Every structure is written in C-alpha cells, then in structure tokens.
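Quick one, probably user error.
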C-alpha cells in the first residue's frame, strides 16, 4: 500500500482533492456473534507480522465478548473482504467510501499448476481488487496485485521487504 499510494488514498468530497495518506489503517474481517465485522489495524505499515497477528487476535477476543468499540471499527484507509472463509472462489468486495480500494481474498484450493514443465497440484487462492478509477488505474491495480502475489508466494520477500 505504501508502494502504490493511490490504493490507500481518498477523495475529499468538500474540496474535490485527492488525499494521499502516509499511514495505512487496514480494515480486516473479524467474526463476531452478530456476524462479521471489519476492525481496523491502525498504522499497519509500521507493525511487524507478529504485531498484526496480535491485533487481529485481540479484535477476535473483543468481538467474541461483544466488547468492540466504535474506534475499533471506523476509519480504515483500505479494507480486506474475505469470501474465502465461506468457500467463495471468485468473490469481489464493495468499496467502503472514502476508501479507494478493497482487496478480496478467496478460498485456498488445490489446483493443477505447471511447475518446471510438470503439472502439480498446488494451493491456489484467487485475489481481487475492486478500486475507484478516479484514484487507481488498471496499471496501478495490476502492479499492486502482482507485488502482493509475489510476497504471498515467497514470504521471505515480505520479511525482507523486497
């Protein structure tokens, strides 16, 4: 998100100006007794993977006890929608204005993939990016998804910030 700033931007309706943010507040889906809710991990760009996991676990505990606050669920600059937890394979999210985009994650399924000239069954997860064309063009969206794919396929790239 910091590499492709348009995906984390918004439009100020009053001024009509694009606002590029120097922070990333990611909305993540959390199950709750009342149904799924989006909780916001603040300043995710400065957190380690472990800190992000702890934040998600904390939200899950609060949600299970029905203790989430308004501050826990508002103000995301970018969100993740997860149809995969329900088996969805080609789900897409709806942009929550004023956000510029939402990442859709889908179920991980074993699929036939060509690896070194041979067909192998490998885990595959389809991703989607729904985005506001006033802020993000197709090149930026594709670049974002390719960078995300590369980091997910080789987590050492994420850990080494490549």
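Nope, works fine. Designed sequence:
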């Amino acid at each position: 998100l910091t590499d492709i700033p348009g995906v984390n931007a918004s439009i100020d309706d009053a001024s009509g100006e694009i606002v590029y943010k120097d922070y990333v507040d990611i909305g993540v889906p959390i199950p709750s007794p009342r149904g799924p809710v989006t909780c916001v991990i603040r300043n995710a760009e400065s957190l380690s993977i472990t800190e992000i996991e702890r934040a998600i676990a904390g939200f899950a505990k609060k949600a299970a006890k029905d203790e989430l606050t308004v501050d826990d669920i508002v103000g995301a600059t970018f969100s993740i929608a997860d149809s995969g937890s329900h088996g969805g394979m080609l789900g897409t999210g709806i942009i929550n204005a004023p956000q510029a985009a939402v990442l859709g994650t889908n179920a991980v399924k074993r699929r036939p993939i060509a690896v070194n000239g041979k067909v192998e069954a490998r885990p595959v997860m389809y991703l989607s990016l729904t985005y506001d064309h006033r802020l993000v063009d197709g090149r930026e969206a594709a670049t974002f998804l390719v960078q995300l794919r590369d980091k997910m396929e080789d987590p050492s790239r994420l850990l080494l910030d490549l």
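The longest strand covers residues 101-115.
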